[in-house]
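Quick illustration, no need to memorize.
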Amino acid sequence: MKKIAQGLGILIFTLVLWQIIAMILSTPILPYPLLVIQHFCISIPGSLALHIAYSMMRIALSVLLSLVIGLPLGIAIGYSKPLSRWLSPFLYLAYPIPKLALLPIIMLLFGLGETTKVIMILLILFFPVTIAIAGSVRAMSKEIFQTMKAFGLSDMAIARHVVLPGIIPSVLDSLKVSLGIALSILFFSENYGT
């Protein structure tokens, strides 16, 4: 209940501050909050809801693809030292490249459709998820793996019963951080594509 009250307080403070700034500036670029809320409520039953649904679908598909690709790759990199020596340099070199700079290239390769938007979000989500998973697997105690192998568990069973439950917090943290960036990239790529 306290968090709800705190959230409402922040919302009210933001709306009041917005109203004051809009009154001071008195420019069409910054409309009054009540006007924006009114237009938003009018637009939701129309085409806005459809556009929001399409955007959420693109994000959900990108999250799913980043997990499908990043989860096994991150586990393999974190678990296998030889694989880590081969793949980590590529992963860490490609991670800092600004993904927005790749948008024109991806548009040339895949066109202006859905694929481009999904690939852009996938690029934003893939690297943090994979790196977080690999780091989380590396941080696990090696004694756990040795004990499980001593009990006769296969690598797949260890991955399923030990590694997957252990990496869930780092996966959720990396997705939480990356989704904000992914939303802004989605907005940019949808506008750029349009």
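The chain has a mean pLDDT of 87.
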